[in-house]
Specification:
With about 300 residues, the chain is an alpha/beta fold. The protein folds into two domains: about 10-195, HUPs (Rossmann fold); about 220-305, Uridine Diphospho-n-acetylenolpyruvylglucosamine Reductase, domain 3. The chain is about 50% helix and about 15% strand. It is built from eleven helices and ten strands. The strands form two sheets. Strands 3-2-1-4-5 form a five-stranded parallel β-sheet, sandwiched between helices. A five-stranded mixed β-sheet has the order 6-9-8-7-10. A hairpin with a 3-residue loop joins β8 and β9 (about 290-295). α4 (about 115-125) crosses α8 (about 190-220). The longest helix is centred in the C-terminal third of the chain and has 30 residues, at about 190-220. About 30% of the residues are buried. The model has no long low-confidence stretch (mean pLDDT about 90).
């Protein structure tokens, strides 16, 4: 099994499960073949959710030592019952810190084809929009070289190449939505159905890229990057206005964008009185005048402020 990875310095996230242990084996082989092109640091995060999680760390540490790869880990004490979202946020915060410490160009994870299906199904159940269907895509600081590989293929590789791994007991807990999707929905799907879902996700990703390009071009036509014409915005259909505002917020690195936030901001721009100011995130506010909606820094003196 071969993987494609851009040459450079990478932080490889390894949990100790079969997916990430296969990834670790593959990057080791890659470095052996092309030692001048790659530098890998193995990073392991112990969430502190399971009592036996220290065994995962020992396995990963031993394998990293065998492969002569640098190993970094951190222990947290999140506790049993911690949500997947909280655990993920803590894990990626750690990975980002490691990335900065070793001056890596990005983080490599072992997400695979089944994860793509699980994520799409999970996001659809949560009511996310078009972006949620193709959420596991490459971007600047993430590499996911196993996305085209199925879970079954990774398990076969592990068995045939004597890759050791540990099973996370929480992966069987059906109280977690992703586990329910994995064991009760996707595990019972036929290969043809899975292939059809992957095709839909790929097509959605293509459409998303085209839509995002159109939105970027539309925003580029505004006279000022931090201002939207209210007259123009009011004339947009509500669904289009939401997409425009989402793209505008992302352009200016607004943190924690959520559907409810977008909805409130759209209504504020379309109906709010001149002079009103709405908090957007901890760094930005939305200031309304008669003609424009303007993103301003919170350090700038404002008038009446509400929160969107």
């Amino acid at each position: 099994m071969n993987i494609r990875v851009e040459p450079g310095t990478w932080v490889v996230a390894v949990s100790g499960g079969v997916d990430s242990m296969v990834l670790l084996d593959l990057v080791h082989q890659l470095q052996l073949r092309r030692p001048d092109d790659y530098t890998f640091t193995v990073a392991h995060f112990d969430h502190g959710i399971r009592p036996d999680s220290s065994e995962d760390r020992r396995l990963v540490q031993q394998q990293a030592r065998t492969f002569r790869l640098p190993f970094v880990y951190e222990e947290a004490h999140l506790g049993a019952g911690t949500s997947e979202a909280v655990a993920r946020e803590a894990r990626y915060a750690f990975l980002e810190r490691v990335c900065q410490a070793v001056k890596a160009q990005g983080i490599m994870t072992a997400h695979h084809q089944d994860d793509v299906l699980e994520t799409a199904a999970h996001h659809l159940l949560r009511g996310t929009g078009r972006r949620g269907v193709s959420a596991l895509t490459e971007h600047l600081r993430r590499s996911r070289p196993l996305l085209a590989k199925s879970k079954r293929r990774l398990q076969e590789y592990a068995r045939s190449h004597d890759v050791q791994w540990r099973e996370d007991s929480t992966n069987q807990d059906l109280r977690y939505t992703r586990n329910y999707i994995r064991h009760q929905v996707l595990a019972k799907s036929m290969p043809a159905e899975r292939a059809q879902l992957i095709a839909i996700i790929n097509k959605t990703q293509e459409l998303n890229q085209e839509i995002d390009e159109l939105l970027a071009n539309t925003l580029h036509m505004q006279p000022h990057a931090r201002q939207l014409s209210r007259r123009w915005f009011i004339g947009l259909p509500h669904a289009v206005a939401r997409e425009v505002l989402y793209a505008w917020f992302r352009t200016h690195n607004i943190q924690g964008i959520q559907r409810a936030m977008i909805e409130r901001a759209v209504i504020a721009i379309k109906t709010g009185r001149s002079g009103k100011c709405y908090g957007v995130d901890k760094h930005h506010t939305l200031l309304l005048s008669k003609s424009v909606a303007e993103l301003t820094d919170r350090s700038t003196p404002q008038l009446k402020r509400k929160s969107v």
